[in-house]
Design goal:
By secondary structure, the chain is mostly helical. It has a single domain, classed as MFS general substrate transporter like domains (Growth Hormone, Chain: A), CATH 1.20.1250. It has 17 helices and two strands. It has a two-stranded antiparallel sheet. Helix 1 packs antiparallel against helix 2 and helix 10 packs antiparallel against helix 16. The longest helix has 33 residues. The two termini are 31 Å apart.
Length: 407
């Protein structure tokens, strides 16, 4: 069974392999950017669904993480990740084609949108640890720089997808979904080029269940990794879960704006991601990664609280932009810390546990936010989330191993 891959050095230069890898990630991120806007638009404007149903659809995009992320981590340690990612890109292109056909035939319903969300969520969940485990394989200079390059490319490509999807109400679904399907096809082709440039290595492995348990023991027995995963789990439930449900509702119901405006707000978030990723690539980072992650937690809590205060409409874009900056720094530094603390033999499984903590708790947060929105005001929920985040930083942050750990 496979536990990793090594580059066939005679096949091509490392720089060329990195270019194919970044291209595959970029086209995939573009498709994700389109998807981020299209699902709320289809649910809230095209089908006119309520807050609780919309929250359930968003949760169905994330629930498969509970089942498939850990399996993806085992696959990343044992199989050729590029081939699996190629198949995932093809599956996503097929699902988007089905939604396009249903929309054109006026057959799209809340049930079909739920099924689509569940299947897309499964494919995306499997792909996440596979992609992350490949980063050190194609790093040219250092893993930290490779992670920052990956983040920069993904955020740039995703912003283009968000921008195009933001004009969907005037340009129409056909060409936007068509471009999304084409991007996934190109991404799959780039992964196929990488799959032919790798040579699998073999090692003895236990069953899938035992392999997952090994990964869990690896994380729980390491104080820094354990605290990082717990912190990421909190972010998934409170911040990501709230973001995917409450921000669209805040814009459409509290401020009375359209889904197209949500596209611009989401674009501001991604632009914040891009600017901070580019800045981190151009400067030397001196602070420990764990300390930076904790500071970003406090910043995110403050922004959530401000969004809950129902400030003037013009503050939405700068607040979400600032949130995007904080998320970019926190995400990149969290991944750098993770990669620096984990052994190669269990990298895929540890990465999958890290991502499970984030994306596995997010659907619970999304469902909770959707149902709370039926009872409480959107502003009250956002303010409460901000207070919880700041309280966690004060109580837990400064006393944790993350604050003092060295990369």
């Amino acid at each position: 069974m496979f536990v990793g891959t090594r580059i066939d050095s005679g096949a091509t230069r490392p720089e060329s392999l990195l270019l194919f890898f970044l291209s595959a990630l970029g086209f995939g991120a573009f498709a994700t950017g389109v998807h981020i806007i299209m699902v709320p638009w289809l649910a809230l404007e095209h089908l006119q669904l309520g807050a609780s149903t919309f929250g359930l659809i968003q949760a169905l995009l994330l629930f498969p993480n509970l089942a498939f992320l850990l399996l993806g981590g085992v696959v990343a340690d044992r199989r050729n990740a590029a081939k699996w990612l190629m198949a995932s890109s093809a599956g996503l292109a097929l699902l988007h084609s089905v939604v396009l056909c249903l929309t054109l035939l006026h057959l799209l319903s809340s049930w079909s949108l739920m099924g689509y969300a569940l299947l897309v969520g499964g494919l995306v969940a499997m792909a996440q640890p596979l992609r992350e485990s490949m980063v050190p394989t194609f790093a040219v200079s250092s893993v930290q720089r490779a992670i920052l390059q990956v983040s920069f490319v993904q955020y740039c490509a995703q912003s283009v997808g968000v921008l195009l999807a933001g004009v969907s109400t005037t340009a129409g679904l056909v060409w936007i979904l068509g471009v999304q399907i084409m991007a996934l096809s190109i991404s799959g082709w780039c992964y196929s080029r990488l799959s032919h440039r790798t040579i699998p290595t073999r090692a003895n492995e236990a069953s899938v269940a035992e392999a997952i348990r090994h990964g869990v023991r690896e994380v729980w027995g390491h104080s820094t990794l354990r605290q990082l995963v717990l912190l990421v789990g909190f972010n998934g439930f409170v911040n990501l879960g709230a973001y995917v449900v409450l921000i669209p509702l805040l814009i459409t119901q509290v401020y009375g704006l359209s889904a197209a405006y949500y596209g611009w707000v989401q674009l501001a978030f991604v632009v914040g991601n891009i600017m901070m990723s580019g800045l981190m690539l151009s400067v030397r980072i001196r602070w420990p990664s764990g300390r930076i992650v904790l500071i970003c937690l406090a910043v995110s809590g403050g922004i959530l609280g401000c969004l809950g205060l129902k400030l003037p409409q013009w503050t939405l874009v700068p607040l979400v932009f600032s949130w995007g900056c904080a998320v970019a720094v926190s995400s990149s530094m969290g991944r750098v810390l993770l990669q620096s603390q984990v052994e190669k033999a269990v990298r895929g499984r540890v990465v999958s546990l890290y991502q499970l903590a984030l994306f596995g708790t997010a659907p619970l947060g999304a469902v909770s936010a959707g149902f709370l929105a039926e009872i409480l005001s959107i502003n009250t929920i956002l303010l409460g989330a901000g207070v919880m985040t700041m309280a966690l930083f004060v109580i837990f942050g400064l006393r944790s191993a993350l604050w003092s750990c060295v990369d």
